[in-house]
Amino acid sequence: MKPELVFQNWPLFLEGLWTTVHLTALALVVGLCIAVPAAFLRLNRVPVLSPLVDGYVALFRGTPLLVQLYMVYYGLSQFDWIRDTWAWILLREAWWCALITFALNSGAYATEILRGAIAAAPRGELEAAKALGLRPRQVDRLILLPGALRRALPQLGNETVFMLHGSAVASVITIQDILGAGRHLNARFYLAYEGLLTAAILYMLVTLVVVTAFRALERRYLRHLRMDSAPRTRELPAMR
Amino acid sequence: MLEVLPFLPLLLRGTMVTVALALLGLGLATALGAIGAVGRLSGGRLSAVVVRAYTTLVRGVPDLVMVMLVYFGGQRMLNDIGALAGWDHVSLPPFWAGVLSIGLIYGAYLTETFRGAYMAIPSTQSEAARALGLGRFVTLRKVILPQMLRHALPGYANVWMVLVKSTAVVSVIGLGDLVGMANDIGKSQREPFLFFGFVLLVYLSITWVSNRVFATIERRIAT
What is the ipTM of this complex? Predict the structure, then answer.
């Protein structure tokens, strides 16, 4: 073991950490922006659009993130007509391919999470909103969405960790994220574990920060449910 | 579309590798999950601490990192142990590195699934079994386990769904699974879109079939 090499190369890991964190954060934010309208489209059926959303969710939740990334990074560049459009400015960059793929993937999972949370809205809230004379649109925006976002907090926390871990595949398409830094160190000094072990520890630390942050959010926004007294275990995001 | 046909045997072989990897990984994960749950539930303080450390640490690491750590680190560890024990060179093939890492990761999740299922059964059940004069083992086999099955199944199905997709990352360490095959063929044929599209379809079918199977089992158990 040569841990000193890790410390000597700390800027490499710091850069990797930054790449992972902001790539994941951006993907999650864009994903949530996709998920809000998509979740309502799953529940309030609209011709054409709703089936499209169903297909999108099934495709992205039913296949591996790595293959989705390959599809965007390698697959799309095979077509000349894509290379000729403005989209090519983004799609030729590994970083944008990763962001687009991760955002679409996270959006599909978040759609299902939000859909469940919206469907779980207490009937009383809806009846009260109707009694106050709110229009359906207003009910969605003022009553259902804020409540659903609150209820979905624990699962959104799991999804955040899932995306954080999933983002490690970005290193396969040359992005220098945390894992990329670890592999770089290993390759340069011909090591077996040091770089990967450092990467693993960094991922654990970020996971810990995310879990703690979501606990704090839950304590604040789910206080009425006394979530802090209930034991919580981290689960995989529900697939079915 | 027809360009896929000549490569169908190769892709099919890759699919078999993927399915075998997933099934063996699930087997190992189930064993580890069962051991972990027993360690947390009935053991002493030490075993509970060990299991907690295992589940917490493993769930903090991405699957791809675990796969690489097991493959590269595990190879080095085997060599070091081999040097001490005086073995010949032992190699860790990507397939078994994949089984090992997938088993390790999802064993941690299944520990929680099984523990939750056990805790969902009221203690009066085992008390009643005791009162009827059943032994510890019979109580577990005839009273607790059948009821645990019902509680554990949704979580177990979910772990399987995530696990299947996790197998894709093992292609990164050079395994000729479905993704690895499609990657090689797609690049050599300059048709990556087509071959990765095929991969997406295969995964979608696996997901769809699994969904059906688990739904059927759940319906059977529920009645």
Answer: 0.91
